[in-house]
Amino acid sequence: MRKEEKEEMANQEPVNHFEYTPRVPIRVVKRLPWTRPSILTKELSPSDTVLDLGCGPQSQLRICSISYSVGVELFEPYLQAAKRLGIHNEYIKADVTKLEFKPASFDVVLALDVLDNLDQKEAYELIAKMKEWAKKKVIITIPNGYIPEGALDDNPFQIHKSGYNTEELEELGFRVFGMGLKLPQWLVKLHEGQRLIGFLLTEVATYPLSLFTWKYPKIAGELVGIHNKRGDN
User: Fold this and answer.
1) Does residue 102 surpass a pLDDT of 80?
2) Residue 124 belongs to some domain of the structure
3) % of the chain beyond a pLDDT of 90
4) Which residues constitute the domain of residue 107?
5) Whole-number pLDDT of residue 144
6) Is 7 a domain residue?
7) 233 in Cβ contact with 175 (< 8 Å)
8) Domain total of the chain
9) Is residue 233, in this structure, part of any structural domain at all?
10) 229: which of 15, 89, 140, 156 is 20 to 30 A away, CA to CA?
């Protein structure tokens, strides 16, 4: 895909059966600080090759200008939706825990809201592999602590199986930042399965608090982990 085509596609609003968030112009979203799009825009360079584990139906990479990307997705409806959008240069249908690549196969390896869908042992093993596959850095996002969640979109791979905190990610070599505010479990459970309500509560209502939780991730709702391979963590 030519760079011009990718930029044009990135500025289009994706439409598929799994869209549940209010539509905001992509040029606006990627300029908002403390969001996944702005983090990726800052951390990725145009020359980067990227492995996007558990890319889902509409990867955040759609807003990024990069040279090459591979999306990995096991859930067939998500995979087909992702292919229709054509965000990645290549797609692989696979269980992320069963993947094998040569060391330093990609500049950057992403796992955005993926690790909590794995058992802790599987997640730790995957993180170790991600570090081997990446030349430059590994970027993850994950809820702060265990957040119960069922099979969204009838996708059994969306079930949350584990949770992680700031200290655990730091021990694994990540610089950790926060987004939003950690909500009490009763409030999280109240909107379980209601994706729009969940988005408004966890992403919109608590967004302004990211001004503080970015530097104090222990009270954040979502954790961002960045592991640099060049020793500047």
Assistant:
1) yes
2) yes
3) 56
4) 3-228
5) 94
6) yes
7) yes
8) 1
9) no
10) 89
On whether the CB atoms of residues 63 and 26 are closer than 8 A, the answer is yes
Q: Is residue 20 part of a domain?
A: yes
- Tell me the C-alpha distance between 61 and 82, whole Å: 11
Q: The whole model's pTM is what?
A: 0.82
Please identify which residue in the block is written with the tokens 């391979």: 229
Q: Give the domain CATH number at 54.
A: 3.40.50.150
Q: Give dist(CA 48, CA 50) in Å, integer.
A: 6
> d(Cα 69, Cα 109) in Å, to the nearest integer?
10
Any idea which of 79-93, 94-108, 199-213 has the lowest mean pLDDT?
A: 199-213
3-state secondary structure the chain: CCHHHHHHHHCCCCCCCCCCCCCCCHHHHCCCCCCHHHHHHHHCCCCCEEEEECCCCCCHHHHCCCCEEEEECCCHHHHHHHHHHCCCCEEECCCHHHCCCCCCCEEEEEEECCHHHCCHHHHHHHHHHHHHHEEEEEEEEEEECCCCCCCHHHCHHHCCCCCECHHHHHHCCCEEEEECCCCCHHHHHHCCCCHHHHHHHHHHHCHHHHHHHCCCHHHCCEEEEEEECCCCC
